[in-house]
């Protein structure tokens, strides 16, 4: 999903993300659908510089990012306010050049 808001901590960027109902967790849907979306975005649309981010406490999404062979980019991590006004820390992962590996 392209984000063109200059107000976002990452500025304008292209993001890959996922959200599933709890009963869909643990079935590989996030990894499978994100891989297909990334292949389409890179091979068919020609997008580059795609990022993904999640909260520091979201181990499940971080595991998906690792399974996708995304690379952590701590220099781009950010803190912003959540919809409730509380600080929210985003950990940033990037799609590396030459993805997919193997």
From TrEMBL:
Pfam families in UniProt: Acetyltransf_3
Signal sequence annotation: none
Gene3D superfamilies named in the record: 3.40.630.30
PANTHER family membership: GNAT FAMILY, PUTATIVE (AFU_ORTHOLOGUE AFUA_3G00765)-RELATED-RELATED, N-ACETYLTRANSFERASE DOMAIN-CONTAINING PROTEIN
Domain N-acetyltransferase: from-to ranges: 12-69
InterPro entries linked: Acyl_CoA_acyltransferase (IPR016181), GNAT_dom (IPR000182), N-acetyltransferase (IPR051531)
Stated name of the protein: N-acetyltransferase domain-containing protein
Domain of life according to the entry: Eukaryota
GO MF entries: acyltransferase activity, transferring groups other than amino-acyl groups
């Amino acid at each position: 999903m392209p984000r063109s808001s200059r107000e976002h901590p990452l500025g304008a960027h292209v993001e890959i993300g996922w959200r599933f109902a709890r009963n869909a967790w643990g079935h590989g849907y996030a990894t499978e659908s994100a891989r297909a979306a990334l292949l389409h975005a890179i091979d068919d649309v020609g997008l580059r510089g795609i990022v993904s981010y999640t909260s520091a406490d979201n181990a499940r999404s971080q595991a998906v990012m690792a399974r996708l062979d995304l690379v952590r980019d701590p220099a781009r991590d950010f803190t912003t306010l959540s919809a409730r006004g509380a600080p929210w820390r985003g950990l940033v992962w990037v799609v590396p050049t030459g993805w997919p590996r193997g």
